[in-house]
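call fold(seq) -> tokens
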Amino acid sequence: QVRLVESGGGLVQPGGSLRLSCAASGFSFKSYTMNWVRQAPGKGLEWVSSINNGGTSPTYVDSVKGRFSIFRDNAKSTLYLQMNSLKPEDTAVYYCTWRPSTTTSYRGQGTQVTVSS
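ret:
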């Protein structure tokens, strides 16, 4: 059974930092690209970042480049998102996702990130 459990969200002031974690189980984590997506209030899902199975090729949406860093620990089957210089527009529910095929996708329950003074 595939499980993705996100944690690390919270309330932070603009300019602050958070580190999100996603504990994965039920599949061969080390073999797959993993992703972070987010959903802001009243908006659709937005892709944020991806990282290949080896952790050597991260990619980011333009709006977070230079502020967010994605990385993974394959030994712990855990995906991370380090978020620095947070802005109010980063407020969203953040999900980690796994796409084993073009027609199948899994995501966790999400973790709320709120950036506000």
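The radius of gyration is 13 Å.
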